[in-house]
Structures are given as C-alpha cells and as structure tokens.
Amino acid sequence: MAYVITRLCVDCLDQGCVEVCPVECIYEVKQAAPPERPNMLYIHPTECINCGACEPECPWHAIFEDRELPDVFAGDQALNAQTEEQPKLFRVASPHRDAEGRLQPKVRPTADDVRLNRKRWDDKL
Ligand code: SF4
Ligand code: SF4
After folding, report:
1. For the whole model, what pTM was predicted?
2. Which of 8, 33, 51, 99 has the least CB density, counted as fewest CB within 10 Å?
3. From start to end of 30-109, where are the E strands?
4. CB of 5 closer than 6 A to ligand 2?
C-alpha cells in the first residue's frame, strides 16, 4: 500500500504535501523530462511509509491511498510508480520558500475551485 498523487495536482503544485512528508518521498519532474509528463508531484511507492500525513494537507484533495483511488484516476498509480522505474526523470521536491527561508503562504482554493478542478478530469461530475 502507498499513497498516490493524482492529476488533480496538475498545475496546482502548492507543495503542502511536501512540507509534511517525513521521509521526502514526494518528487517533481526534472526539466529534462519528456514534455508529456504531467506537471504534478509524484509519490515514490516504495519510499512512502503510508503515514497519511500528506492527504489532509492537500487543499485540492488530490492524494489518495492506492486502494481508494477513484476509477477515473486509476492510471495515476502507474504515473507515480515512474519515480521508482525511471528515477533519472525525477528529483525530490522541496517546499517553496522566500528569500529569508520562510515557507511561502498557500493560496487556499474554494470549494468551487476544487469541484471545477476535479471536473477537468472527471466529466461525470
Ligand atoms: S503517506 Fe506519508 S510518507 Fe507517504 S507521501 Fe504521504 S506524507 Fe509521505
Ligand atoms: S498538496 Fe496536493 S495540490 Fe499541492 S502539491 Fe501536494 S498533491 Fe499537489
């Protein structure tokens, strides 16, 4: 079992999950990665210790346990697994900080923002 970041993270990337992960197992794509690689974060399935700390931190509700993935995001488990299969394409994500080293404040989405983001991927909503 591991946690999975879904495409609901695409272009959101506020990195709240990264700030709380105790084992630094959340990755981002390197610039040299193929352009079709989604602009999102990824959880390394073997390094993840299944602590669950990241899931409630995600304001976009983009993180799920693998066994609870909605069908529409089932393919995202394989996307996350690429961190293990193709490690050269990824690097550990770091929290966004300002020049003084303080964590950047987060833009909190509204409930409508979250719903509309999900609708981008799940047209049944
Ligand atoms: S479940 Fe825990 S270990 Fe796994 S990615 Fe989330 S915070 Fe990190
Ligand atoms: S907290 Fe959610 S939206 Fe933000 S980077 Fe992590 S998975 Fe993506």
Report:
1. 0.93
2. 99
3. 42-43, 63-65, 90-92
4. yes
